[in-house]
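Subject: Sanity check before I submit

Could someone independently write out the structure tokens for this chain? I want to compare against mine line by line before I put it in a report. The sequence has 340 residues.
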Amino acid sequence: MKNILKIIEGKKQRLDAHLPISKDLVKNSREWFKIELTYTSNAIEGNTLSRAETALVVKDGLTVENKTLVEHLEAVNHGEAIDWIMEKIDKGKQAITKKIILDLHQHILQKIDDTNAGRFRNVSVRIAGTTVILPNPAKVPELMDKFVWWLQNSNINPVTLAIEAHFKLVSIHPFVDGNGRTARLLMNFILLQAGYPPAIIRKEDRKQYLNSIEKAQLGGSLANYQVMMYEAVDRCLDIYLEMVEDRQQNKTSRDVINHVSTKNNLLKIGELAKLTGETVPTIRHWTMEKLLEVADYSKGGYQLYDQKMVAVVSKIRELQRNKRLTLAEIKKIDILYLTN
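---
Independent answer below. Compare away.
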């Protein structure tokens, strides 16, 4: 456990060395993380919107055919909760209070269950599929007071504080619904305030994630949960470092990049992202999905793209917005033919 924390702290130092980060990179990274966090957090709870559909709903305000109103509201609400967190953080570091936690929950359940949004539960609840016994509702206010006191007075590493806060909150289960989403938002609030990127719990890790929490709640070791969450933080640090260091590489090696681009008429991933208004992680994801072709590699191992990929990227986004197609559906289309 100490080893991964040491690795995380080392990567945080690398990230801090790039401060201050340019406003456009901050904006792009926030937009990418907002969609990714909204998609993954809702997917863990059973929302069936895909990543691309989540982007359409959150960024473009569109509706997706054959999806429920609640699924749309869950995406919109989570996106607005992320924006709310960012606004708070931009105003300076502040103590996590009971009101902040209630406000997070208010954002999650607004227009879905206004009766319970931003209010502690006054009824007993059970989690389907588990034998975990949750606290009596009469104990919730006192447990939350103790929890907030612990948050405000703990001196442990902020990453450890964030993941333990997540576990403690889902174990108190203070709300009728929306506990998981609120706990993940709180965890990321703490991480962001400490200068870390948010931690993403991937959809494919859902079972492992829920099982690790249940194991600890039933009296078992917390180790599986801790390792998984530390790995999530580490993985997102890698994503953010790649964004920042790729931008720095573009800045410090501009002459070399211009030489490569002029000689071969090829673009590095950062250049392609800038020309299309997309983020580097988006370009990388579409490349992994075989929607974009890598034409060559630089001597340093960087992916290089043909100029025609600019039109392909624009066409992919157009098909998502106007035709509401998923990436799987777009993969069946000859996009190069459409862009010629």
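---
OP: Matches mine. For the report I'm noting this point. Residues 5 and 230 are 7 Å apart (CA to CA).
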